[in-house]
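Appendix B: a complete holo record

For completeness, this appendix reproduces one full record from the ligand-bound portion of the collection. The bound molecule is zinc ion. The inputs are the chain sequence and the ligand SMILES; the output is the full three-dimensional arrangement of the complex, encoded as structure tokens. No fields have been trimmed.
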Amino acid sequence: MAAKVPPHAVLVDGHALPKPVAGHPALEFCNTWAGWGEPEAPGAEWLVDYDRFVLWAEFTGLVPASAAARLRGRAEDAVLARARALRVALYRILRHRDLGALDVLAAEADEANRHTRLTATTETVHFELVDDGNPLLPLRSVALSAVDLLSGPQRNTVRACPGDGCGWLFLDPRGRRVWCSMASCGNRAKVRAHAARNP
Ligand SMILES: [Zn+2]
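The structure of the chain with zinc ion bound, as generated:
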């Protein structure tokens, strides 16, 4: 029998990853941790090792499958630690507008920018990360994605889910969305409200 996958997860290559709900990869990156601002609960960490980080980055479209295939299965704890530190900093900037966390992002973005090259298609010319086989590739891609989000108007539409043990971020351009997902946090709140009305 297949393992039961909770409504806020998706099974990728046999591993549960957080379901994409955010509308931007940099926000999806923050959503690889659950229960922001609360004591750590079991299952809070989705990026349990470097391999999972690579799998997540490929699934999110931040690294190509060819690069991910070369990086999967490696033990790169130092890179994973930097990714987690960047995630905390990014969440502080996005949710709390805490510019004291900018140094961490700046350092990773600088590192990433040193490994880009100008690439042309028939439509556009843009900077692209070079796949040099370095295990930092997914981290570089996350850092540039974060800069992309923070440097545009979308950053003003970032909202956090108020669900217990959640705090996931998502874009809410119309100002109408409350929950990361109706199927998980929204439903839990509905059940609680129903129980309160019908004790
Ligand atoms: Zn939620």
